[in-house]
Please model this.
Amino acid sequence: MQAQHPSSSKCKAITPPKGGSRTFKPSRRLLATAVIGSALIAYQVHKTPDARQRLESLVSTAQSIGDLTERDAAVVAELLAKPTTLILTHGEPRYVF
Model:
């Protein structure tokens, strides 16, 4: 006995439509989260005023256009609220929080 396999000219669920782009296109919310996450890491590593300003600006913009959830904004605000202190280690400034 042979199994019968119906055929169809319609696109299968696992195949991209013909002529379509094969690159991944994330949503604006995912892009905003990725960019803010990168800025957050940069701020936590470097603790510079420029890194902080960039992070605050990105969060503000993402919130104003609705691409950042309230919970994510609260996490960033909590991290920005923690005071940073400057300590010297072998003559080099190090920031600790």
About this structure: The first helix runs from residue 28 to 46. The chain has one domain: 28-96. The chain has a mean pLDDT of 80. Residues 28-96 form one domain.
